[in-house]
């Protein structure tokens, strides 16, 4: 029988790229993304005995990575920074990279800001969700995956996904009610929104 390390590596190596892509979405910084992936692999290896053979390893590792991000990176209030932001200077590589893009591909500055810097209150509210609810909310509401896809990835029934998503939305609505009022967003009364 193969060692724990060999079995883990066999399952883990094919998901490295997917974990890095997700880490980049979460951190918006290559160095932080690499740190997050490394942290995910350390946590995954330590918890590998709890992984159930035959279930979706990629989904299991994705959950570990998201939880690591919300529990460690978001709590530490780490915010992404581009390498040149501290100096305000651009080098030849930046100019060359920028010349390869058309303005049609670019997001507005406002959208870039919103994508990169989720308000602290929102990050805190997401961190308060149980890991199961948070994972479903991120997969379905943020990443836009179908309920069936989320159910398949997490190895649960579609009704469980729908229930967890509804409960996550209800909890987030409650947690963010004051935040929404302060910023002038309309909030529904006691009934459904």
TrEMBL record:
GO terms for biological process: DNA-templated transcription initiation. The keyword Magnesium does not apply. InterPro entries: RNA_pol_sigma-70-like, RNA_pol_sigma-70_dom, RNA_pol_sigma70_r2, RNA_pol_sigma70_r4_t2, RNA_pol_sigma_r2, RNA_pol_sigma_r3/r4-like, WH-like_DNA-bd_sf. One of its GO terms (molecular function) is DNA binding. It holds the Pfam family Sigma70_r4_2. Residues 17-79 form the RNA polymerase sigma-70 region domain. Keywords: Sigma factor, Transcription, Transcription regulation. It comes from the Bacteria. The keyword Cell membrane does not apply. Residues 120-172 form the RNA polymerase sigma factor 70 region 4 type domain. PANTHER family: RNA POLYMERASE ECF-TYPE SIGMA FACTO (PTHR43133), RNA POLYMERASE SIGMA FACTOR RFAY-RELATED (PTHR43133:SF25). Belongs to the sigma-70 factor family. ECF subfamily. This is Sigma-70 family RNA polymerase sigma factor.
């Amino acid at each position: 029988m193969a060692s724990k390390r060999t079995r883990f590596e066999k399952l883990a190596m094919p998901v490295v790229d997917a974990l890095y892509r997700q880490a980049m979405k979460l951190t918006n910084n290559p160095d932080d993304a690499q740190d997050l992936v490394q942290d995910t692999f350390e946590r995954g290896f330590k918890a590998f005995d709890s992984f159930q053979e035959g279930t979706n390893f990629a989904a299991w590792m994705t959950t570990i990575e998201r939880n690591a991000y919300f529990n460690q990176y978001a709590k530490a209030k780490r915010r992404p920074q581009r390498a040149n932001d501290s100096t305000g200077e651009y080098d030849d590589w930046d100019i060359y990279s920028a010349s390869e893009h058309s303005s049609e591909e670019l997001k507005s500055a406002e959208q870039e800001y919103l994508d990169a810097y989720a308000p602290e209150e929102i990050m805190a509210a997401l961190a308060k969700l149980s890991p199961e609810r948070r994972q479903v909310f991120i997969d379905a509401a943020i990443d836009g995956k179908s309920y069936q896809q989320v159910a398949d990835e997490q190895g649960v029934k579609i009704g469980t996904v729908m229930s967890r998503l509804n409960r996550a939305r209800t909890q987030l609505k409650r947690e963010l009610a004051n935040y929404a009022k302060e910023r002038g967003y309309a909030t529904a009364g006691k009934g459904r929104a």
